[in-house]
Design goal:
about 110 residues; mainly alpha; AhpD-like; 2 domains; 7 helices; about 80% helix; about 0% strand; globular
Length: about 110
């Protein structure tokens, strides 16, 4: 939970926890333990690298509903706006221009 809070911010995590229902409780536990406890804490990559990979994966798979959250996380993890721009530009070549166009729109709305 500590890593989840450090990466996503207390406000986001508190909102997620507050919206937890009996239906989603086990899923929230799974995310916290697996994604934030097992993957984001591994020593093989730093958080900046993990953020770049995550942004690219979200763009590639069209998971735009998660992109704004991870754009804010990327800033928390030390990426500059210029580096985020580079990640989106890189994804245009390998993931597709329409997905990068959507990512730029979301980044503009999220980061200003």
């Amino acid at each position: 939970m500590a890593v989840r809070r450090e990466v996503l911010g207390d406000e986001h995590v508190d909102r997620s926890i507050a919206r937890t229902t009996p239906l989603t409780e086990e899923f929230q536990d799974l995310i916290t333990q697996y994604a934030w406890g097992s993957i984001w804490t591994r020593p093989g990559l730093d958080r900046r690298s993990r953020s770049m990979i995550t942004l690219t994966a979200l763009i590639a798979c069209g998971h735009h509903e998660e992109l704004a959250m991870h754009l804010r996380a990327a800033l928390r993890n030390g990426l500059s706006r210029e580096e985020i721009t580079e990640v989106i530009l890189q994804s245009a070549v390998y993931c597709g221009v329409p997905d990068a166009n959507t990512a730029f729109r979301i980044a503009q709305e999220t980061l200003g």
